[in-house]
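S.,

Sequence below, as promised.
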Amino acid sequence: MQGEKRFAVLIDADNISAKYIKYILEEISNYGIATYKRIYGDWTKPNSGSWKDVLLENSVTPIQQYSYTFGKNATDSAMIIDAMDILYSGNVEGFCIVSSDSDFTKLSSRLRESGMMVLGMGEKKTPKPFIAACNQFKYLDVIADTEKLSIEVNSTAEDIKDKRENETSKSVERHIHGNDKAAVGNTQDNGDVVKYMTSIDEIENTIIKMLDEIDSDEQGMTMGELGNRLVKRYPDFDVRNYGYTKLTNFLKKFDAFDIKAKGRDGTAMWVYLKKEFSQPTVEHKPKTQKKKNYNKKGTKKVYSKGNQKKR
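The prediction came back faster than expected:
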């Protein structure tokens, strides 16, 4: 337990469903210990009743925040004030902001300026500015769908598992690329929930550029290093967003990369860029300047058309 980061988990009950509490706490356990677990909302409203049982089971502290004015969200202000109080207490090394609301963008930026790690969680409808303000961002609806799929797959044969995973990845790709007309129609009805997710084409081009910039005959890097760089570049990057459970399987779908095992036991996985996808280097020749003639006094010689010297 020593050396693990301490996190403050702050949940916006107005924008997050109670069905995600299991995935929220499981994800944060991959990064450290949740020392603060608070959820904010107006618990006098009937729609907040679904949170009651899960809060008791997971020891999450509910914070009551009345809506003083109709149509105004007072929950955001309460979360921001508490987050700053926790920040100045010095009891945590990171924050987990659980919301699909862009109002927490400035809070996330401020926490990162103070050296805090900020892990964001929300649904695919979360606006891009809030995602970019976090160190990492997790889509809760994607995580939930991935776990349901995994349970179904584990109860069937291995060949069905492969078929289901391929179908899922293709379905997700159609959503990301916007090639599925029905899917596009659905996302528009739900407020364009997929438009903020980083496209799979952008991920591929970034990986190609990363590997191409390596100055060696074999343009490659370890799987772990590549994963870390992608998360730093795209806070919402997670292979589960694209229908995969492992980075290795995700990279195998691209024709531009070779994956090789290294090391004595063959457990170190490396990713290499195929030569045909490497960008050719362009040599820039320095421009040669014409020599200027000078006389003994250091002044420039000027000649007329008749090659006569002028003073």
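Residues 158-177 form the longest helix (20 residues).

Coffee later?
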